[in-house]
Amino acid sequence: YDSTKSYNKLRAALLADIGEQPVPINDIAISTGDWQSYRERVESYVGPSGFMLFGLIDHGAWITKAGIDRKVLRVILGNPLIAITMLRHDVKAGLFAPVELLLADEGEDHSSLTYVKPSSLMVVEPKPELLSAAQELDAKLAVLAEKVTRGS
Q1: CB 94 within 8 A of CB 134
Q2: pLDDT per residue over 18-27, tens digit each?
Q3: How far does CA 57 lie from the centroid of its chain?
Q4: DSSP alpha helices (H): ranges in the chain?
Q5: 82: number of Cβ within 10 Å
Q6: Which residues on adjacent β-strands are paired with residue 99?
Q7: For 26, 88, 93, 150, which has the most beta carbons within 10 A of its beta carbon?
Q8: Which residues lie across from 78 on neighbouring strands?
Q9: What does the alpha-carbon distance between residue 147 and residue 17 come to, in Å, rounded to a whole number?
């Protein structure tokens, strides 16, 4: 997704939707008892898009050392309540959940958001239920990408 937003504005728009601080998802799992209490706790972190931030890797912070002067951020995001819709059909889908996006500065007031469609990665063996759930994730991710890249 190309955007007429600057890198900083795109980053801000994305983080405004999914959260500024990574969610300690493993700590939540340990500190809650049953599925219902886990679900309620997770829901408290979910942003408007249905996703939450799990981690950031700032490639821009280190690639400058190799002579590449560019802002590039890898964003790890997801939602266990979405992930379970796939993992219940095949736990191998967990290799690609949570999902990842790459934000990049493309020059003067332009940026981009790139990701690999989750369904193209998650469905290792033919499983219609898994494919359907993964395609729902594809659609949710596309809505988020369109929302945050739109406008200036």
Answers
A1: no
A2: 999 999 988 8
A3: 12
A4: 7-18, 25-31, 35-43, 60-63, 80-87, 118-122, 128-149
A5: 21
A6: 77
A7: 93
A8: 52
A9: 10
Q: Is the pTM of this model over 0.85?
A: yes
Q: Which two tokens stand for residue 84?
A: 């379970």
Amino acid at 43: E
Q: How far is CA 25 from CA 18, 21, 36, in A?
A: 14, 12, 15
Environment class of 84 (CB within 10 Å of its CB; exposed 0-12, middle 13-18, buried 19+) = middle
At 33, is the pLDDT very low, low, confident or very high (cuts 50, 70, 90)?
Answer: confident
Cα distance between residue 149 and residue 145, in whole Å: 6
pLDDT per residue as tens digits for the range 87-128 = 999 999 999 999 999 999 999 889 999 999 999 999 888 899
Q: In what order do the strands lie in the sheet with 52-58?
A: 2-3, 111-114, 99-105, 72-78, 52-58
- 13 sits in the region (left: phi over 0; alpha: psi -120 to 50; else beta) called alpha
